[in-house]
Amino acid sequence: AIPNSDGKLENNYAQRELYASATALYRLFEKLSFSASSDLIFNTLDADLTDFAYPKRTTSLSAIAGKYASEIVLATASLLYTQTFETVQFGEASKNQSKFSPFAGISIKPFKMTDFRFRAFYKNMFRLPTFNDLYYTQIGNRKLKPEDANQFNLGATYTLTNKYFIDFLLITADAYHNKVKNKIVAYPTKNIFEWTMINYGMVEINGIDLSADAIFKLSKNTKISVGGTHTYQRALNKTDPKSRNYGHQIPYTPRVSGSGKAGLQTAWFNVNYTMIWSGHRYAVNQNFRENRVEGFVDHSLSLAKDFSLKTSTLSANAEVLNLANKNYEVVRYFPMPGRAFRATISLKF
Q1: pTM for this prediction
Q2: Which pLDDT does position 190 carry in this prediction?
Q3: Residues 315, 343 contacting (CB under 8 angstroms)
Q4: Which CATH superfamily is domain 145-348 in?
């Protein structure tokens, strides 16, 4: 750590990763296949700090999987084994981990002439804390436990292509239930400028995701694209029934959120509009009015044009960010910048 020219403290980190992978596939029948894979990952983290941990982690990922695919049914199943070995030069290392994570999913197309599908899956997800989560100064928490989630999903999709003036249409709807043990979240300390990583003992998440994307062809060189997403999510702290925040929404997780987009593509230029929005959130564990962070809507607009050169393509793009010029807060007490302009030029050979 060294002071910079402004007298502020600078911590410099360098993270490196080596990765090796091998896979094998065996097709037993035309519709039935099996596979096996193995991945080996080696990570290190260095920093210019006195008595820094200098962690090293070796992660082994081994998986076996099976797939059955027909015109009506797509079924998959897999089993992943995760194993880690971690060491540090100073202090106490994060514990070595080992975990089996199963997955099973199915997709059914009930109508031969219509691309409408039901889908369902169960997945166990094992998320290891990153080096940032564990070892970064003031942020890191070496006592973090891995996040262990059981995810259940039931949904449907509908796809349409090249029908009348509809070039492409995709509609999806999913309902899910997740039970997360030791959920890893960022949480502000006594100083709002310093955050740390903590585990929630148990979080239950129930939600619905809706999405739609469409491209309409107006002429040979003119298309209009529209799309949107909507999420309703209850992510509740279920750790300690005696706690004041039991059953409360976890911090910075909105109950409702979504996005929208629209674009015009022509032979001369492209215009795109994007919007993201979020309902209110809570800055801390207790869902009281004084802890509430209001929702926000962000609009952006862009204009792009490509110029064809002899051996390359020159792309020019101009954007207006935060079109409404609202200083909304994603994090409490940290208003975002107002309206901004950005221009980029790129050359593709």
Answers
A1: 0.86
A2: 63
A3: no
A4: TonB-dependent receptor, beta-barrel domain (2.40.170.20)
